[in-house]
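During the second year of the project, the team shifted from modelling isolated chains to modelling whole assemblies. The rationale, set out in the original proposal, was that interfaces cannot be judged from single-chain predictions alone. As a representative example for this report, we include one of the complexes processed in the last quarter. Its constituent sequences, exactly as entered into the pipeline, are reproduced here:
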Amino acid sequence: MSWSSFGPGLLGVFNVVVLGYFILLNVSYFFLTLFAFRALRLYAIRMKTVELRSLLAEAGTPPVTLFSPAYNEELTCSESVRSLLTLEYPAFEIIVINDGSTDATMERLKEDFDLERHARFPSAHIPTAEIRDVWRSRNHENLWVIDKENGGKSDALNAALNYCRTPLFCGLDADSILERQALSRLVRPFLEDGDVVAAGGIVRIGNGCTVKEGAVTDISLPRSLLGRFQVLEYLRAFLSGRMGWSALDMTLVISGAFGMFSRSAVVAAGGYSTNTVGEDMELVVRLHEYFRRKDERYKVEFVPDPVAWTEVPENFRGLAGQRDRWQRGLIESLVGHRRMLLNPKYGRIGMIAFPYYFFLEMLGPLIEAVGYVVFFYMIFMGIAPLPYVLGFLTLAVVFGIVLSISAVGLEELTFRRYPRVRDLLRLFGLSVVENLGYRQLQAFWRVGGTISFLRGVKSWGEIGRHGFEKEVEEAQAERTQDEEPLLPATPSA
Amino acid sequence: MNDLLTRLIEFGPEGVTFVAVVGGVFFLLLVAILFAVVTLFLRYRNHWRAKRWTRLEQRWEPVLNEILSGEAIPPQIWSMVGRREEDFFISFLLRYATRVRGDERERIQAVARPYLEELLSKRMPRNPAYRAMAVQSVAVLGLPEFEDEVKEALKDQAPLVAMVAARGLAASAGARHVGVILRNMEHFELWSQNLLTNMLVSLGPDAIPHLREELENPDNSPSIRTIVANALSRLKDIESAAIAYTILGRTDDRELAAACLRLISDLGGPEHLPLVRKFVASKDPVVRMAAVGATTSLGTASDVSLIVDRLHDESPWVAMKAARGLEKLGATAILLQLAAGDGAESELAREVLDM
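Output from the structure prediction step:
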C-alpha cells in the first residue's frame, strides 16, 4: 500500500497512528485473553487442590473489616448493611462511614441497628475531615458507624482505615451486594502467599437479577440494551483484562466496588488519595510504587471467583457521567505517578502495564474518537478510497467481536453464571451490535472525561442510584406513609 | 498457486493490501463464529458432563459403601470404572477419603491404589496446579506406599505443591514427619504463618520433642523457628519456655523475638520477667507489643508504672496492648482516671473500660 492512500502529510501520519493504535490495542487484548484463558483453567484446578473450607479451617480465617462509605444513602443503607451482616465469614467487622450525609442516612442506621456511642481508639492517624462520633450497634457488636463531616469517598475510606483493627480490610461500594462466600474466596491469596498486599474480586452486573434478603438469587441479563452492553464490557474487562494482567503479575487496577487490602500496607503507603475520583486505581498504582521504591517483596492479585454484584447506570446521562469520572480517575492516577512510565526501576509494571494504560487506555479514546472523525472526513473529501477505509474499520470491528465472544467463552469455561442459553446467544449478538454505536459513544464519553480533567473538574456527578429493585420496594414498604420522598443520592462536589 | 500469486502481483501493493484486509476480515469472522460455536459446545458439554458424572457416582456409591462396610471387595468397583473415567474416579474417592478415618480410609486407599501410579506419571511433569492435584490425591489415598514421592514433592519449586505435600504428610503419620516438613519449609514458608503453625500443631503432642529440637537449632531460619515457637505455645509445652528465654537473649530477629515473648507470656514464669521487661523498651513496636503482653501476663502490681508509660507509645497497637494489660494487672483506677479526661489516652481508656 502506498502512503498516499492514507492521505496527504499530517493526515497520513495521523491515520498511521490510528491504525497502529487499533492493531496494538486489539493484539494486546488478544494476548491478555490468551493468558487469561490459561490462568483460568489452572485456577479451576488449583481450587480443587486446596479446598477452601479446609484451608480456612486450618489457617484460621484472618479477621476482615468491611468499609462501607455512605453519602445520602438513606434509601438503601440499611438493606446494604443487612446484606453484609449475612456474609458467611467467621470473623469480620463492618465500619459504615456516614460522610456528612444531608439526608436521614444516620437516623436510619441508628434506628435500624440500635446504635450507641462507643469509644474506639484509632489505630492510624491519616488526616481526614472531622469525626463527629463513633457508634456501635447494640444488636451486632461487629457493626460500627463513624459519623463524620463530609470529605468525599476517599476521605471516608481513610477514616475507616484509621479505626480498622484487623489485618485485612475490604473496600466496598454502597450498592455492592457480596455473595455469601465472597470474603472467604477473596481472602485465599492472603493465606497462600504472605507477600500479597491487595486482591481484587470480580464485579458483576446486578441489574436484571433478583435479589432476596441481601443475596442475588436469580441471574439474568439487564432489560435495557445499555445494561446488556455493560455486561459484555465487564466480562471483557474482568475475565480477559484483569485475569490476563494478573497472570502476568501486572495487576494495576482493583475495583473499588470489591477489593481486599492489607491494612498495614495501605497505611504505610499513606491511605487513599483525596485528590482523585479514581481512588481505587490510584491506591493500587501507589502500592506498586511504594513497594518497588522500598525494594520490598509484594504481590497484587486478581481472584476471579469471589463476586460483588453492583448496579450500573441504564440511562445515557448516568453512564456518560460514570465514564467521564472513570476517565478522569484513570488520568489522575497515571499522571500522578508518571515517573513510573517506562521506568525500569518499576520493573514490568513500569515497562509494560503502566505504558499500556497510559498510551492505550488513557490516550486511546482520543485517538479513536478523532480517528472516526478523520476517517469520515477523508471519505467525504474523497481523500481516501472508501473500500480501504471500510475494510480497515471492518477489520477493527470484527477483531473487537472476536475479543468479546472470547470473553463470553471464558465465562462459559469457568463460572457459567448465566444459566439460560438465550442469554448466551444474546451476549453473542451484543458482541456485534455494540460496535454499531455503543463503543463509539464510549470513546466520545471518555474524550469528554479527558476534557473534564483538563478543565480541573473534580465532582462525582450524579449517580442516580435506584437500588436493586426488589430491595428498594421492600425498603419503601417498611417506611411510614407520611414520610417525604427522598432526593436522589448526590455525593459531595 | 502460481497463478494466484501472479494475479496478486499484478494488483500492485495497494491491491495486495486490500486483499489482505479483506482476507483478515473473513478470517476473523470465521474465528468469531468458531469461538461462538465452541462456547455453545462448552455449555452443552458441561451440562452433559455433569449428568454423566452424576450417573457414574450413583453407580459407584452403593458399591463403595459396601466395600467400606466389608461386604464387597475392590475389584467389584474397578470393573465399573472405564478407561477415561479414572481421573473422575480418583476425585470421587478423594471426596470420601477426606471424610473418614481408620479402617474406612484404608479400604478407600485399597480401592485407589491401582490408579495412583499412573496418576503420578501423568500429572507430575505438568504445571504446578496439576502436580499439586496429583500430590494431594496420593497424599490422601496413597500413604504410606507413596511416602517417598510425597516427600520428594516437599522440595517442589512451586510452593503450592510443596504445601500440599506437607499437609498430606502432617495429616497422615503425625509426628514422624515433622523433621522432613520443617527442613523443607523454606519451599512454602510464604503460606500463612497461622496455617503453618496449625499444621505443626495438628501433629499432636508426640511432635513436641521434635519441635523443641527444631526451635533450639540455630541453623533453622528465624521464620521457621518463629512458626515452631508459635506451635509449641499452642501445644502448651511448658518446657519450651526455657528454650524461648535462651533464644530471646540472643536473637535480633523481630518476629522470632516476638514469638518467644508470646510463648513466655503463655507458658513462662516469674523467673523470665527481668529479661522480658527489658524488651518493653525495644525500638521495634512488634517486639514492644509482645513484651508488654508478656509483662502484663507474668508481672505484678510493681510493673504498672512500666506499662503506664506505654500508653503514650507512638505505636497505637502497643498503647492498646498496654491499656488492656493495665486492666489485667488490676490497675482499673488508673484507667478510670484517664477515661475522665480528654485526649487520645482517654479514648483508649474508655474503650478498654467498655464505655
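Chain B touches chain A through 55 residues (CB under 8 Å). The two ends of chain B are 89 Å apart (CA to CA).
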